Amino acid sequence: MTALGSEMSKKRRSTFGLRLGQLADLFVIAAKDHASTEEDYADQDPSERLRCFLTEVIHSNSLLFLVAPEIPRNEWCDVTLPTGRSLQEVLYSHKSSVEQLQIIKESSKRLTMRSISEAERAVATTIYHAAIACCLVQHNKKITQHSYEKLDESFALLMEEEWMSDELMQLFSQARRICQSKRGKK
Amino acid sequence: MKPNEYTSIGGTAESFRTTHWTAIEEIGSNDDIAGTVLVGDLLKSYWKPVYCYLRHKGHNNEQAKDLTQGFFHEVVLGRDLIQRADHTKGRFRTLLLRALDRYLVSVHRKETARKRIPQDKLISLDNAGFHELPAAVNDLNSEEVFHYTWVCEMLDRMLEEVEIECRQHGMAMHWDLFHDRVLHPIVTCTEPPALEKLCRKYGIDATAKASNMIFAVKRRIQAAARRWLRKSVASEYEIDEEMLGLMRFLTERREY
Fold this sequence. Notes:
heterodimer, A: mainly alpha, 0% strand, B: 2 domains, elongated
């Protein structure tokens, strides 16, 4: 047994043998949004929300997927959101296509409009800029109408957030260098 | 097209390529070796519900294990199930249950289960781990025992998957918090410890942060549940129906 397996087995036992009421209490966690006290605090920590958003494997129930159909996709109608990988894997990979990053950018833009809390909006804004930054770094392509100057400012502001992850700091830093060099050429 | 069954970006339909429905279709179109592998996968997911159903029907441990092997070998691998499968009609496990009933009738008519079991078993059930049904199913009928066991199997796999996921993504403390605050109290029927106490235990500076960490695990469990259910239904829409159906089953009988 691996160390991980050993650690796990100490903590948990099978649900087989539990009463139906206990199974229902467990199942309700999986079945719907949570109306527990935990939810009251869910928006207060952008770092946690960001971490959750970045590391969750993208699947058809992901928030990004839920808003993706709203995007008018005249240019990339055959492009799919990359499932089976986490968002951070997509954002930090050179294999992610421009079109995939465009969908992530547009989806997160819609999430910012839907957000009901500051934390949600902050995370969606971060993902939006991360997709743009990734495209600049990996493809040397700007997928927004914002100027390089404006993008540089936005990346800089995001890097000042204390809840920003190290990986995104690095991505934004690389993107800023590209923005600054492009501005210099003009 | 039903609600949420969107396919315009290749999302939902894409994810239904490898379900239990498609597995049995592929058993029919593949060679024997590939078919055996696919049946083995199905057997891993469904042997416990089938076994418990048989135990509840009165078969002893050995008979139930043999019949389980025989059912998957003869009916599923033998392609009888494929001919009857119509994924527009009901859940996969309902199809399996009906096929199992027919199989039991045919076994009874022909010969003893022992003689019918192939020598090369799909997977060994010899160390399956349990021989008696738990007291929790005493008041359930055989079909309900099948569903009960299937839910337990789903919850066990799902919780294991999320725990591994958490530990691999540097969220071990998230999982431990969830375990202490939510999972353990439900399983042991005890009061959940106060968040303040858990914060002290894990060195977390604010209860809001602890709540948020628990919430992150719950979200992963939701996602894992949908991934699991997706295997046994034909569309995203049916996942929600399945969730509701299972919830109804558990809550309507929760006095037991």
